[in-house]
Design goal:
single chain, 24 helices, about 950 residues, nine-stranded antiparallel β-sheet, alpha+beta, eight-stranded mixed β-sheet
């Protein structure tokens, strides 16, 4: 791969590339190592810095938060030593005033007893100190006194009525906990700071509660300390509690907000500082709850695509305090010098690259200029300029190469002149051969089109008039039989013509698949009914066997599948004189190229048979191959649809095929010795069947032994569908009249063949249609212009003016848009349909056509409505009920639910349900329904029940 890529590069590039690669590689490697080492150093430095900062904060907190409890402890010691009494709080005033003076970050220190008395010394940020007093004797009113420099009361600063210290939240918490603890963080009413109080309950020697000691700590001093710490250039430190409330920060932001006259705490995620807010949101996203942070964590995250280092340190003092210390530093604070070094390395790399390219260009020019001259001379010679030479004064290897090139050019000129003469002669021969091939192909296409038209047109008359005569009730049985022979012979001739045309379309690549959703069980049952009589005539056993896992409803080309099975069954019944013919259907579960182990025929002696696989020689655009499977593109996106293979076998016990004939049986017009002896068939059935199988994504193979039998096997790809997707078959009904009160329809029949016109007249005129005829397109236009028919049956190939030109003229007018034109053609080429519809025809119908197709087309395009003959009466009129005995086989052919309903109705003696069941059966088999009705009228219930039981046991 690399060598092929290098071969495509210019020589100058190849010469320059090593210089550039070496320098870029060396500089890039050094730069990468430098960058990696710098990153590692940054990570280590950031970790050390944040650890140091967090440790300093933790140590300061330990000292800062220990002081309030030490103050309370000194007060408690004074009580225990008897120096101060909890009953006489007046003696505490100077002591408390002195304590608050010694500790500037203590907001107040106080004492309260169980009688409700209270004393506190309070120090404000402006340096003034007050003495706060509550006494039971004064009605538990709160008095705040200003003090002088000796701590004596002077004037009353504030009075609050009915202030019972025992109801204070801090006092209650101290009593409840029963040991040193902390109050909740709250905002001072007088000072712009958060406050937290150390609580200490006081008990007597008899463990009786005497009161509580309090020391309030100002948290704004924490913010001042955090602000004094230098965390890189722009790092931050803040402290929060486990609920995410901001307690202190190194930024100028206050840890509370004022709304009106009220101060409120807020969550750190609501911080006005973007840096603090982004850090808090990251922690929330990382841990969901701050309670989950149990130990020190070192993290990194991004803010606006810039990396930041983060250190989170839990802080607990053992007295109920549980906070988090957060240190965050931008990576950019450490990487400034690294980025500068990186830029320098990049500049050096580009400088070295420029020098290397310059040296490479100079070197490559010295080497490649003579080579480029040779290249230019070679291109000129390729253009036919044989007198081109290379001028070179160098005596090195390139000079020798130039001399050799000049010599080679002279020899090439001589050889080319000789070769050019030969090519001209050969080109002339190929042109003649191409013209002959095109003429032959055109002649073949013309022959097929003419043969289709000339043969199918008279067949249209033969089959059409046969259909009309079979409806006659005046013909004798002998004449009915003769008409049946004419009709079957015509159908046989049509089949032969279709086989030849099918083979031609296959060879020319015009055959396509037409997938349709259908009932596979019904198709197999129809084939069994079709060939059962023929098998009975030859006293052969016809067996149709399908595996239980074969789905009933599938999507595939049912017409081609039916034709494949008909061809194979016809061959098997034709060449089998005793024994059986079996059709087996199973769902393919193995690799299609894998043969099942132990596979053989029903006869052990056939185990040495030769198998000849049918080779897929078609370009199947509908399928895509993947290893050993062929995956079809389903025609719908139904979730229930899935693709798989069905495996078919048609096995007989007939005369068999010789080994030396197996390779040739799939060739067109080739018959085996047995086939030639029978003097039947054309040798087209098997080639067409094999091509159809391959078109449907499968393969066909044959195994046979002379005198023992033959087994044809093939598989096709299908898609399973739901029962709801299947269109119910419409019962065949004969039209006997038009629905009354319709306007008279004018129908124009255009065909140059009198028989074809007469056939349509015979079909349509008796029903009351107004009919006119035309023999060519020009007459059709004249009649249309004056008569304005509702619908025109237009033959497309006619003298004077054909159907294409006539249709284009009529449809090119505004009046012609209201006239329906249906094309009648004997062509079987699929591309003919597109040409006809593009000419303006509303529909397309091939000859020979069916009477029902004519009526359906007229109903669709001009809305004609018909009265139909009752199918039950029609069939029963031709067969006398006493002429045919009913057997168990009649019930086997019927759907199981209908038979079950009929049996239950007879057992219950429900005449209404019996009549309803007979009518349902009549839609499936009118003859059997008539026979059942005859038995019911004669009260032969036991006979029907017996036949139903035999049918069930037969299944």
């Amino acid at each position: 791969m690399v060598s092929k890529l290098l071969d495509k590069l210019p020589l100058r590039t190849v010469l320059i590339f090593p210089f550039v690669l070496q320098i870029v590689g060396a500089v890039g490697l050094v730069g990468d190592l430098s960058f990696r080492n710098g990153q590692k150093a940054v990570n280590n430095l950031a970790s050390q810095l944040m650890s140091e900062v967090s440790l300093r904060v933790e140590q300061n907190l330990q000292v800062y938060l220990t002081t309030p409890h030490l103050i309370n402890q000194t007060k408690l010691d004074a009580v225990k030593l008897g120096l101060l009494k909890m009953e006489n709080l007046s003696a505490w005033e100077k002591y408390l005033w002195r304590q608050v003076q010694l500790y500037p970050y203590i907001n107040f220190t106080s004492v309260g007893n169980e009688k409700g008395d209270y004393r506190s010394g309070e120090q404000l940020s402006n340096g003034s100190r007050t003495m706060n007093v509550i006494e039971k004797s004064t009605g538990l009113n709160f008095y705040s006194y200003n003090t002088n420099e000796r701590g004596d009361r002077t004037t009353v600063a504030t009075v609050v009525k009915n202030f019972d210290n025992r109801q204070n939240t801090a006092y209650k918490k101290a009593v409840k906990v029963g040991q040193p603890t902390w109050s909740s963080v709250y905002i001072s009413l007088l000072e712009p700071t958060l406050i937290i109080s150390a609580l200490q309950p006081v008990y007597s020697d008899k463990n009786q509660l005497e009161g509580g000691l309090f020391a309030a700590l100002r948290l704004d001093h924490l913010g001042i300390f955090l602000h004094s710490l230098k965390v890189g250039k722009s790092g931050q430190t803040f402290i929060i509690d486990r609920q995410g409330t901001l307690l202190a920060t190194s930024t100028p932001e206050k840890p509370f907000r004022t709304k009106g006259n009220e101060r409120q705490l807020f969550k750190v995620e609501e911080s006005s500082n973007p840096f603090t807010r982004s850090t808090a949101k990251y922690l929330t996203a990382q841990y969901q709850k701050f309670d989950l942070i149990k130990k020190a964590e070192l993290l990194s995250f991004e803010i606006n695509h810039k990396r930041h280092f983060l250190k989170v340190l839990p802080f607990q003092d053992g007295k109920g305090l549980d906070w988090l210390i957060v240190v965050v530093v931008p990576e950019a604070d450490f990487t400034a010098e690294i980025d500068a070094n990186t830029r320098t390395a990049v500049l050096l790399c580009f400088a070295a690259l420029g020098v290397a390219v310059a040296i490479g260009i100079l070197t490559s020019r010295w080497v490649t200029n003579p080579i480029l001259s040779l290249n230019a001379a070679a291109k000129n010679i390729a253009k036919g300029e044989w007198d081109t030479t290379v001028e070179s004064e160098r005596s090195d290897e390139l000079g020798e190469l130039a001399k050799s090139f000049n010599s080679m050019a002279q020899q090439l000129q001589q050889s080319f002149e000789t070769l050019e003469n030969r090519v001209q002669e050969r080109t002339a021969e190929l042109a003649v051969a191409k013209d002959k091939a095109e003429v032959a192909n055109q002649a073949k296409s013309t022959f097929l089109a003419n043969m289709s038209h000339e043969l199918r047109s008279p067949l249209n008359a033969i089959l059409g008039f046969s259909q009309l005569m079979t409806r006659s009730r005046t013909l004798s049985p002998e004449h009915q039989e003769n008409i049946s022979i004419i009709s079957s012979s015509g159908e046989h001739l049509l089949t032969l013509i279709n086989n030849v045309l099918d083979l031609s379309k296959i060879e020319s690549g015009r055959t396509t698949l037409n997938p349709k959703k259908f009932d596979l069980y019904r198709l197999l049952n129809d084939l069994e009914d079709m060939f059962e009589l023929k098998a009975d005539d030859k006293q052969l056993q016809l067996v149709f066997d399908r595996s239980p896992d074969v789905p009933q409803y599938v999507e595939a080309d049912d017409v081609k599948l039916r034709q494949i099975l008909i061809n194979l069954l016809n061959n098997s019944l034709k060449f089998t004189h005793e024994g059986s013919v079996a059709v087996r259907v199973s769902k393919q579960s193995l690799d299609r190229n894998q043969q099942v182990e132990g596979e053989n025929f029903a006869h052990p002696e056939l185990s040495q048979n030769t198998e000849s696989p049918a080779i897929n020689g078609l370009n199947i655009s509908q399928f895509s191959h993947s290893k050993n499977q062929i995956i079809a593109t389903p025609s719908d996106d139904s979730a229930s649809a899935f693709s798989f293979f069905l495996h078919f076998e048609v096995e007989d016990t007939g005369s068999g095929i010789a080994t030396n004939e197996l390779d040739a049986i799939f060739e067109p017009f080739v018959q085996t010795k047995t086939g030639k002896d029978s003097q039947e068939g054309t040798g087209l059935g098997l080639p067409i069947s094999r091509k159809f199988v391959e078109l449907m994504g499968g393969k066909m193979s044959v195994s046979s032994a002379v005198g023992k039998g033959t087994n044809f096997k093939f598989d096709i790809q299908v898609i399973a569908v739901n029962a709801a997707d299947i269109e119910s078959p419409k019962p065949s009904r004969n039209v006997i009249a038009l629905v009354p009160n319709q306007h008279t329809y004018r129908i124009l029949i255009v065909d140059d063949k009198p028989l074809n016109r007469q056939l349509l007249i015979k079909i349509l005129y008796p029903l009351g249609f107004e009919i006119k005829e035309a023999t060519n397109g020009q007459e059709a236009i004249e009649i249309w212009n004056s008569w304005e028919p509702h619908l025109i049956w237009m033959d497309m190939r006619m003298p004077v003016m054909d159907g294409y030109e006539a249709t284009q003229y009529i449809k090119g007018t505004i009046k012609g848009q209201a006239t329906a034109i249906i094309a009648l053609t004997a062509s079987v080429l699929e591309e003919e349909r597109a040409v006809i519809l593009s000419a303006g025809c509303d529909a397309f119908m091939r000859k020979p056509f069916r009477e029902a197709d004519i009526f359906d087309a007229m109903h669709k395009h001009i809305g004609v409505r018909y009265i139909y003959e009752d199918p039950g009466q029609t069939n029963l009129s031709a067969i006398k009920e006493g002429d045919r005995a009913m057997t168990a086989a009649d019930f086997v052919k019927l759907p199981e639910p209908l038979v079950s309903d009929l049996k239950l109705a007879i057992l219950n003696a429900d005449t209404d349900v019996i009549d309803s069941s007979i009518e349902q059966i009549r839609l499936k088999d009118a003859v059997t329904a008539g026979a059942i009705a005859n038995c019911i009228e004669n009260f032969e219930y036991d006979k029907i029940l017996k036949l139903i039981s035999q049918a069930i046991s037969h299944e």
